[in-house]
Automatic annotation (TrEMBL):
PANTHER family: 3-OXO-TETRONATE 4-PHOSPHATE DECARBOXYLASE-RELATED, FUCULOSE PHOSPHATE ALDOLASE. GO terms for cellular component: cytosol. GO terms for biological process: pentose catabolic process. It comes from Streptomyces antibioticus. Keywords: Lyase, Metal-binding. Residues 13-186 form the Class II aldolase/adducin N-terminal domain. This is Aldolase. Pfam families: Aldolase_II (PF00596). Residues 217-246 are annotated as: Disordered. One of its GO terms (molecular function) is metal ion binding.
């Protein structure tokens, strides 16, 4: 097996794994939805008509950036134009398209999902809703590309949701985060008028996250049993002793 074919096999398996996870989370129902990942000038993408929650690597097709079949025996998803459009414009990365229930419901009502929680800043903040167009059409692909500009996610009016990230794992996490945020919005709206984070509050969150290296693990110093655990402090050099201080 060549290095190239080995890489394609790994990507096809990863796409199948991602689909099964999304299915287990309830974001993919039956054959509705599609997932892809780009490696170099090739894209591994789900086949049309496959049951995504049970997807196997042989149900993932490999195409080039023009859509020409490179590997696999099944026709790629009907949303191939959307996937290739994003991959051509954004370079390497992965795309997840779902008909997740919360996200789809919000996309049937709103023109954009406001920044209802600071975790949406991981997607770029406010999530735009691309205007409705028939599935699989160039018009839909173009409107979603526009909605994704500067964002990690977009909603599709009366259709579903799309997330994009540098890695497949991150694109899946973005899809889960978007579904969670849409659920929070729906529950908040049912109780009253939701509050949203304004630009000043969003900037403050970004500054705090950068200062604290938010979202990453940090080691702590060993502590005796029952003692509070304290973060490891950086070692600072001891200043030289000055004449007269001895």
């Amino acid at each position: 097996m060549t290095a190239s074919s080995s890489a394609l096999s790994e990507e096809r398996a990863a796409v199948a794994d991602a689909c099964r996870r999304l299915g287990a989370e309830g974001l993919l129902i039956g054959t509705a939805g599609n997932v892809s990942v780009r490696t170099g000038d090739l894209v591994a993408v789900t086949a049309t008509g496959a049951v995504l929650a049970e997807l196997t690597p042989d149900q993932v097709t490999v195409v080039d950036l023009d859509g020409t079949l490179v590997s696999g025996t099944l026709r790629p998803t009907s949303e191939l134009d959307l996937h290739l459009g994003v991959h051509r414009r954004r370079g390497t990365g992965a795309l997840v398209h779902t008909h997740a229930p919360m996200a789809t419901a919000v996309a049937c009502v709103l023109d954009e999902l406001p920044c209802i929680h600071y975790q949406l800043l991981a997607l770029g903040g406010t999530v735009r809703v691309a205007p409705y167009a028939t599935f699989g059409t160039p018009e839909l692909a173009e409107s979603v590309l526009t909605a994704l500009d500067g964002r990690g996610a977009a909603l599709m009016a009366n259709h579903g949701a799309v997330t994009h990230a540098a890695t497949l794992d991150r694109a899946v996490e973005h899809a889960l985060l978007l579904e969670w945020a849409c659920g929070v919005y729906q529950r908040a709206a049912a109780m009253g008028r939701p509050r949203f984070l304004d630009e000043r509050q969003q900037r403050a969150v970004i500054e705090a996250a950068l200062a604290r290296d938010y979202g990453t693990t940090h080691p702590v110093a060993p502590a005796a049993s029952g003692s509070p655990v304290r973060p490891v402090q950086p070692v600072r050099p001891v200043p030289p002793v000055q004449e007269g201080q001895r």
